[in-house]
Amino acid sequence: MEDQKIYIVGAGIAGLIAALELEKAGFCPIILEATEKEGGRMKTDAQEGFLMDHGFQVLNTAYPEAKKYLDFQALNLKTFDPGAVIFDGKDSFIITDPMRNPLKVVSMAFSKVGTFLDKVKMFTLTQELKKKSNEEIFNSPSIPTHQYLKNFGFSDLIIDNFFKPFFRGIFLEKHLNTSSRMFEFVFKMFALGHAAIPEKGMGEIPKMIRRQLSKTQIYFNSPVREIQGNVIELENGDKLEADRIIIAVQPDRVMKQLQGQFASPRQVINLYFSLQKSLLARPMIGLLTGDRLVNNIVFMDDVSKAYAENGRSLLSVTVLESKLGEKELIKAVQDELEEISGVKSEYFKFVKAFPIAYALPHVDDLKYAIPFTECKITDQVYLAGDYLLNASINAGMTSGRIAAEAVIHSYMPTH
């Protein structure tokens, strides 16, 4: 098997897991990665004593695939407190644990966010989803999340104050048009697990998978121009002949015949600011209600001290969409931060902006898994990536594993 030339395009989570599974089966794959480091959409930059993830991301500790491939202890995971700090115009209040133990939620704060009946509904939904398997969730009828919440009987108060700002930040779209399947899956994962980040940034996750590889070669700064048949043409003009190819990026980038087959990905702008000290002083996400530029904020060093080791606090700000240029956007965000916190806008020192054109794939028909026969395009070419299933770290890992299974199966003697 070692003489088989198996190329994987992309060293994101899906590509790395595919390589790991191929190694277990005795293959020595080669990964072609366009950038200078592994991780795909999951990268962390170090600058001025700060660690900055490319986009605010968390790992949910309940993800089944993550438990399989990652050593949570070695990542030294730092967890968020369940719940959120809600910024509602001039006021802010905390709701603790809305998905874990809704009936224990402090009634005073909750009454500003939702009704007593909302608490009961939250509890009912949590219990129902804990009993539902992930496969059942993804086989359920699909309706837009906002419709699902209304149908379930949640009040507009809790939809506007909690569900919208919380799930907008996860789905990266403003109107909660994302499928109810994704909502149920994410809600269940938050009810069962914790949102967490590795102590030294989300980039530690792909690094950990890469360290498990022993027979895989990775060529960095090797962007692929096009794949035709079993030939890979690199941007530099080199041509590589392959026995099998796993495309672990969205395939319309490298296969001309697939252009126009995919919906535009979800975008996000992630800005970092430093402040003398955190406004929240607790490892929690801050949600802004209403129609604002900023969707959510997190002081990263409240969750992991390693994110800011220069005596200042590091604020991650998520903006879903904006037509403003960078300078105007920074100023507008600083003004909004002043408005919700009372801290003068100039105290929020701008550090860096990450405009992320491909933050999440836009998936219409969400699935939990697919049979390995479905990721095969031709006898030589196979697909991996969360765009095949649903937009999550769990799906990225699942898709990599399934693509590897398909390739391994293609070498089985047929009787």
TrEMBL record:
Ranges for domain Amine oxidase come to 13-408
Task: Fetch the InterPro entries from UniProt.
Answer: Amino_oxidase, FAD/NAD-bd_sf
Superkingdom is Bacteria
Q: What is this protein called?
A: NAD(P)/FAD-dependent oxidoreductase
From the broadest rank down, the organism's phylogenetic lineage runs: Bacteria, Pseudomonadati, Bacteroidota, Cytophagia, Cytophagales
